[in-house]
Amino acid sequence: MSIRVASVPTDHVYVRHLDPPDGPATVHRLPDPTSGGSAAGAPWWPPRVLEPDWLLENADRFDVVHVHFGYDAKSPEDLVRWTGVLRDLGTPLVLTVHDLRNPHHEDAALHDAQLEVLLEAADAVLTLTDGAAAEILRRHRRPARVVPHPHVVPLERVARPREPHDGFVVGVHCKSLRASMDPLPVVETLAEVVPTIPGGSLRVDVHTDVMTGTSPRSDARLVERLLALSADRRIDLAVHDFFTDDELFDYLGSLDVSVLPYRFGTHSGWLEACHDLGTTVVAPDCGHYADQRPVLLHRTGDPGALASAVRRAHAEGPLPRATVEGRRAERVELAATHEQVYRGVLARGVLACTS
To answer: What is the model's pTM?
Structure first.
């Protein structure tokens, strides 16, 4: 029997790749209800499944609710009401903890409180790494089942060999300066060390809204320094709007090393895409990145450790790359695990109702 899941969200690369690579799927995830808007480029944002009225109006369409992302704007009180409706309906809640610290929030307090509500209400908890599971148990007293992050890059592209290029290209992408980022110290360090590496060049990407000052997190000092470093030919500066998926994969594939300029975090889809494409990741030790995939770690905020990690990347060559066979097998395992989790919470609900 097929299981109907109201996923929050469904149209996200992580969630799409929880299905087996070759059908048929025994789990049916409902399409995302449209929000009437398109905030953050997603027509399902903010997720309507997180509205109590939507649950009540559509309760006959789903068997399980599975939350991944999308509760950023919900207060803890909102989530208490929402989980109360699920409890009244007798609908199980599955939660995957992707972030123990919201990368868009300067302060951790709200996300901590949101997680506390969801973790207390969840009938099953999943996360992506052993380190995150240990932190969830320590902070929130809930055990979490560890499941790997599926591939981000399409399998047909994972199968392609890397395009050869000259030199040793190190990249830092500032994106639109979300709260978890502190790229300027990283860029300053790399602008010193990368030119000392044979064939080394440093590419720095940043979204147009940062450079034009229209981003709410635009940083005048960062803009000034990037322009100065570019004028001195110490960095190759690329200013553009958001990449399409294909543009992102072309960009990541053109790098030998991608340096994550984070000051806090948990897991990374960017890291997974680099693993798919054979690009080495240099990451800070503030999250659980090294539990997720092979990376070169450095102490967060330590310029010497960052410089050593980049030199090591050059000396040792690329880290192991994902294979199509491995990613396909992972998809099969993920699909089976999620079906098992869904059937488990449904069976416990039936037992509770009949006991």
So the answer is: 0.95
